[in-house]
Amino acid sequence: MQTLRYYEREGLIPAIHRDSNGVRDYQKDELYWIHYVQALRNSGVTVASIKKYVGLVQKGSETREQRKQILLEQRQALLKKRAQIDDALKHMDIKLESYDTYVIELENNTKKRISN
Asked: Residue ranges of the chain with pLDDT lower than 50?
């Protein structure tokens, strides 16, 4: 709930409709925005960039290319991050392939040193 209030306070989602008692009453469009903002955050988009994106959406269709550029830049950042993760996984797999052999050798050498 705190996250939703934060999103609303920061202008990441539109003002939430409230019922006659002042209780937030999330409508379909608002739920769409919440889901979209969460997806952007999960993909690493900064709060500042999301604010910019939302502001551009509110300005209308003439900002379509600017909004697309924000998404393209984030896509590039994700691809770079994925390449880094793939590289790290490759190195981890290499280490794990020889791990048991290495550990057995290390343990045997340690036992030999202790017994001598």
From this structure: none
